[in-house]
Amino acid sequence: YGSLDYLGSDPVEYQKFGFYTKSTNVEEDDWSDLIGMTRLLDETADADYEELVESLVQVEAWLRYFAIDTLVANMETSFANGGVGDYAFYYGEKDGRMTLLPYDLDSILGMAVSGLETSIYRATANRVPERFLKSPGFARRYYALLNELASDMFAPDQMEVLLGNILNDWTTPAFVERIQAFSNQRREAVLAQIPRSLTVQVDLPLANPDYLRYYRADTDSIRLQGRANVLKTGIVRVQGREATWTVWNGQWSIEGLQLHPGVNEILIQALDEQGEELEQLRIRVFRGGEPEILY
What we know:
single chain; alpha+beta; five-stranded mixed β-sheet; globular
């Protein structure tokens, strides 16, 4: 039961049957590294979380562990996809930060159960991976790595060579072709889960007649929400106000957007981290009532 949850300061709690075992340095019986890491992962405030994690674990290796497991659609229950086992971790001597190591990979690329359409966030079923992968800076890097791997290592021509070199000598051409086809389909399924465009969801009826192409509101304020490009967006603004922007699911929202009587043209902008505009949308909302009189 290797969830990396903090189980307290007593080493016995980490050595119970089905929890953790040591493969090296068994004689020292020193569990302080694991206990200290799980405590800090559990107790560190959000504002300090990413900096702290960078000092505890090899973040890029963690992200690659989750990303590759996602791209091969590993259906063996593991820490990388919502389980609590079938992985190892290692503390180096020169670099003492912990890294994750996969094993038991007999159910990848459709070789057992398909998993073709599984979520890229399966690992978040457990609390420690959930906090890690949903933290804004790490979420952005996770998406970027998925996109990079899908465009490079898992590109169809690359996988054709890789799988052919590995499998051709011990299995049939038909099996190799089936694995290659699954890899390509899984790649597309993963890429489809990466939000790339600015969108808006308007939960209002269209004004009558609908060819006027504006919505109708009976209140003086509304809520809007949508999605934006997770690879590039740093801020979403609506009528100059900063919306709530959640990187891990690519969603933005804004409450209490004020409307004046008559037609309101609402500008929605996605900006990069330097404040440069990436995309914009405009919608029109008609609010009934007497028009404002300006003096």
